[in-house]
Amino acid sequence: MNDIKTLLEKQRTFFLSGTTRKVKDRLKKLKQLKKVIKANEEQIYEALEKDFRKSDFETYVTEIGLVYEEINLFVKNLEDWSEPENVRTPITNFKGSSYIYSVPYGQVLIISPWNYPFYLAIMPLIGAVAAGNTVIVKPSEITEHTSKVIKDLISMVFDQAHVAIIEGGVEVSQALLAERFDYIFFTGSEVVGKIVAKAAAEYLTPVTLELGGKSPCIVDKDANLRIASRRIVWGKFLNGGQTCVAPDYLLVHRDVKAKFIEHLKRDIERFYSHDPKTNHDFPRIINLKHFERITKLIDQNKVIAGGVIDADECYIAPTLIDQVIWEDPIMREEIFGPVLPIIEFTEFNRIIDQINQRPEPLALYYFSNNPQKQNRIIQEVSFGGGCINDTLVHLGNTHLPFGGVGNSGMGAYHGLNSYETFSQKKSIIKKATWIDVPLRYPPYKGKLSLIKKIMR
Which of 105, 188, 413, 431 could pair with 96 as two cysteines, CB 3.0-4.6 Å apart? Predict the structure, then answer.
């Protein structure tokens, strides 16, 4: 992979030239990026439709619109964020001033996934560029049409010495991970995340891992069932269920379970018609490999809605599975598809224990109007982020950090958090030379009592 080594050398030279350190130049590039995306929206729609039949509306809401909001936030705030932060200085450093400088790491590698191929490639790129780094983006080879569009758009804005898109399969990712970067940002599965972390450890490279997991959705007996149903059906089946923060399984209180299931069935039909296969608002599974993995998790004897599959189209209908127990195969791995298993519960304390006994999820959703229980979920359960009485929408707030914990990842980004993720915090004290207090210098005889009065 000599081409990769050559590209890295070009990017290192470009970074050392100081061009990326100029805030005005960073802002100029971000504005150009937004302009180019706007001019080529149709190409993005077409690519996502070809890759897994995603509707224009979903593409804009979940891929393009959020990117615009992120760029707008950076354009508005980058100059302020990039200013040195003045912090307090202890009397022991009289006369001095203390600052925190945000400086770019240098060369950044971003490895993005296939499920939101445009959004999850461009969002971290915005933060990396805004922070002043050079960047290599490795998009997923699975969504080949979207990857090509990304490469074309980026080439309209950036020289390869600044930002480069490298396409290819696993062998390309392996070749990139064998090289030394100053920061690595990965979005994908836990299995691959461990490989990335191991490669980063070889050079002690800092890394952000945005992974996934089985995100629980809890509907308590006092929840607004009608609203809860709509928001859960939307959050679960958006993008054909191929969302890292989608509700993975449903915990519903016994007292409202039967009624709530009827709400779910009605909302599935209301959103996607009686035959979702003919509804253009419902995407397909990305490929046959993932289709077969998901269908193996479906116990047709427990299906109470949906369950229809078509391998030729990689189609799986929005599916509800009832009478699920924790030991079932579907509860042993992240589903990442349009299948929602339902587990009944009666004791609130018990479900907190059951969730905490399992790997930390990327998201959690709790539907209830009880403030005390809401607070207990937030305080007592470990998860990356989530919502009370909604699903997914925390992801769309650029003012909130997005990231996982434990098995669901490390580090966070979006908005200011992206800028901080891709910036090194450099601590500096600036001292005056017109005075030099002799207290710290030897000999120390007779000085201990004085220093104790100052440092106590």
Answer: 431
